[in-house]
Amino acid sequence: MGKRIAYLGPAGTYSEQAAREWIEKAILIPVESIPAVANAVSSGIADEGIVPIENSIEGGVTFTLDLLIHDSELSICGEVIVPIHQCLMAHNKIDLADIKNVISHPQSLGQCRDFLTSKLPGAELTASLSNSSAVQEMMAASLETAAISSRRAAVLYGATILLENVEDRSNNETRFVVLSHRDHEPTGNDKTSLCFEYGGNAPGILSGSLREFASRDINLTKIESRPNKKSLGRYVFLVDVEGHRTEDLVAESLDALNNQVSMMKILGSYPSAQRK
Amino acid sequence: MGKRIAYLGPAGTYSEQAAREWIEKAILIPVESIPAVANAVSSGIADEGIVPIENSIEGGVTFTLDLLIHDSELSICGEVIVPIHQCLMAHNKIDLADIKNVISHPQSLGQCRDFLTSKLPGAELTASLSNSSAVQEMMAASLETAAISSRRAAVLYGATILLENVEDRSNNETRFVVLSHRDHEPTGNDKTSLCFEYGGNAPGILSGSLREFASRDINLTKIESRPNKKSLGRYVFLVDVEGHRTEDLVAESLDALNNQVSMMKILGSYPSAQRK
Predict the structure, then answer these.
(1) Is the pLDDT of residue B200 over 80?
(2) Do B72 and B107 fall within a single domain?
């Protein structure tokens, strides 16, 4: 039996595409939200779950970051990078000038803002809760309604693609992480994700903490801050470093950091993704 | 004549509330997007513009951060902190059990997730492009439709409030910044916002840069990273420090930082907000 992988559905989302790239012959289980992906793994319905964590244009996916910080005891065991290409689609072939309304997720509308302003200046914009639901809503609306979504969603729901690659910036990629009960054993080309928080006023002492990595020649590949959700201006920091948590220098720097913070959580060590 | 202040409309948004707190007797000009606020100031239609930059639960407002980094030559001349309280509203008094659909901005739906799951488990959720448009759409829909929005939007559009403070966390605040052609003169209780980027692999050398502030006893009150929009894993850092850019030690540390980075932009010095 193949591995069971939960992802943010419905079918046709970029999360489904990431899951198919992670394991080709997996049994894919669509669920309705990012927390539900984690729940599916925690409860044993799925072996692993895949969630978006960062987009090259829009930045961190806050639902996922907050889940990892506050609400999940799962580990990251892998990552997948998926190029994002948005398509404009409708019921049938239609002139752009005849399009009265465009439905998509607000983030996708944002990624295509210049295109919409220049090519569809008169069209009304309507928000939908996912790229896939946008296509379903479009197919239930008038013939003068269009949607912005993935090529696969167009195929799945029977829409006609009018234009491909309508995103404003061509270097649009999303990084997904794979959640499991355990992280990954060392492979020699790994990274480690962690988060931490200070008891006192935070960013003033951050530079000292980051030196624990720099002084051991450990490269940081990412740093991000999220509100700690208790008080405006107080943050949890999320950091990715090169190397596996079981390597001596990485383990040393994590120990040293742990002595400076009020909370530290190692989210997992896993192989660095190769771009396709 | 009062100052003309552009804000993200329509009337009834939290941005309007921030503008009214910033200057009580201003002439308020609602515009349709965050970039349009900046354009209104650049073009002279407004004297100042007010935009949300950070929420205590959801984190940075990416549209505003990216505008400040990439697309605007305006300066920050002030900040305002507004407590956010969400209300559930409908056409008339109605039992929660009879609500079939709830309309709101996806971020507001996210802020009320626990409430919606526990009290309205059967209701369908519908996305809208702003909290105010959600109320207008609700008033045009069936009597069994509800919206989540501000108290002021309920008053403006004639909705009936069913429940107040339906947000999951009570410490929900948004920080707004005021954009102008110039920043603010020193007051003795100021902060300075800036952004910078490295030419090479970024976060590895960040700790050294932050030491320029720490070694001069300048407190960082915020650090955040945004994608540089050219390549996944490359970032622009946004930092707030205590003090005015014309103070000696602040000016020294900014000079030192400027020598280490490929891009630095001082977004402005302005008085720290007092919470009401």
Answers:
(1) no
(2) no
